[in-house]
């Protein structure tokens, strides 16, 4: 796909690579191989800007996030960088000592409008696992490993992952992962419904995630936005009927009066492939 977008992406950062592997799909690659794709504070803020731009960019519908290299998706916070911080600089730039409001890598607490798929090509530890826990779908390499080792370092998983882990797998397993440093293999993560698929090989992890993203990107962008919102609302509120009412009241009219719903129904009647327009929801 052409990299031409209607809105310019954030200024380039060598720690984050952006590419466009399929129509309407953004691939975000954490590019710090020597550091096991651990992330320093300034890069969290850069990724926050990337995903804010992604939500605004009309030509993009789905994002995939992965890590560069064969070993690590993301090994969490760059603790070496953290230990080298200049206290005076931290006083002058306090934001460098905290994650953005969207959390670790701009993803772990992100609400957003459009879905993000994780392509977990290796270790997903600490904040790397917290990224995964808030993604909409996950494709993992057979070599992937998931864990929250923060307690071993005298800290804790403070980027939003703990409540999401409890919500997804229940308190007993979440407690063992976060307090006894249990790690999960890709097979275990699939068993506990933390991921969608295990790729056929490590090399095919990203292509398979892109293929999944392309399936999502092929449907109406309005349908993507409202369906994701309904799923997230239910996950957040734990009330099935309240979640339905909230989304129905807030978004249904815009969907049904929009040009994509008309196009979808017309294309079905005319037995042709619909031509979607950028979402205005």
TrEMBL record:
Q: Does the keyword Lyase apply?
A: yes
Q: Which Pfam families match?
A: ECH_1
Q: Which InterPro entries match?
A: ClpP/crotonase-like_dom_sf (IPR029045), Enoyl-CoA_hyd/isom_CS (IPR018376), Enoyl-CoA_hydra/iso (IPR001753), Enoyl-CoA_hydra_C (IPR014748)
Show which residues constitute the signal peptide: none
Q: Show the GO MF annotations.
A: lyase activity
What the record says about family reads:
Belongs to the enoyl-CoA hydratase/isomerase family.
Q: What is this protein called?
A: Enoyl-CoA hydratase
This chain's source organism reads Exophiala sideris
